[in-house]
Amino acid sequence: MFQCIVSVSVSVPWFLQMEEVVVESAWKKLDDAAVAGRRITFEEISGVVSGPLQSPVADGFVLRRNIHVSLLSIVRNLACLKGSSLSSRGNEVQPYVLNNNRFYPYFKDCLGAIDGTHVRVKVARSDAPRFRGRKDWPTQNVFAACDFDMKFTYVLAGCEGTASDSRILKNALDRDDPLVIPQGKYYLGDAGFMLKSTVLTPYRGVRYHFKEYTRKGPQNARELFNHRHSSLRNVIERSFGVLKKRFPIIGSGTEPHYDLETMTKIILACCILHNFLRTVDNEDSLLDEVDNELNERQQHNVSSSQLREEDHRMGSNIRDAIADQMWRDYQNS
To answer: Locate the DDE Tnp4 domain: which residues (predicted)?
Structure first.
């Protein structure tokens, strides 16, 4: 068990609680025939998501084919918890926003942030060009939404590494199991997304990242908006960072042993386990590491992208109203 605890970077008390809750929930949804009447432990679940055949955790059981099949069955069945484990607060104001006068009431309708992250995949050589995007090797672009508690509220894995964030967002909105954005609500996205009423992006050509404001504070409404937008939106980058550090099978950068379909299920399982850990132990020791890495690689400009005129106008109006109200309050404070 100790090796398993180390592999998923979680303290002993929370590990034991996670084992009880997650295994019990997943077990209820298992097909008994798939595991031949054998009860699967959380150590075995962790063996899959923390990097099977690549870590000491795997040595004791993955080599046995029947247990290996059981592990993959557990990962598949963890996906059954998606509805209860990956969900948003709906119309409720996010507590992080509500309790911070830098963000409330300006971002009271914000559900969280969206972005994509790349995870290495194993595909046929003929398929590799479709998956080889910004990396030198094939990847899948994993799209996700998260709230300000760093919990994933929507995950769409399996998209080609060459797919743009905007294209994947469109796919997420049009699917049978779509990303649901209630009327009047929105997510924060970076400049890789198109500005629209449901996705607010930064102003272009204006200072954005936190580091750019360390010497000189915001000088106008647009700079203030970008500064606070950046402060809120980085929650998705931090969430991805912690996820990849906790589960090396996602973040190691080595070619996985599993095919694309299986890796897609493993990523979903990792996100579900991540959410559970955020619920029981939000003082995450990995956050400091992630924050240091993010600070080192922050870019100093906002990239440009093609915008749709109609939705751009709607999103621009919402953004301008927030920025102007914040600037008035900022000047009077």
So the answer is: 114-275
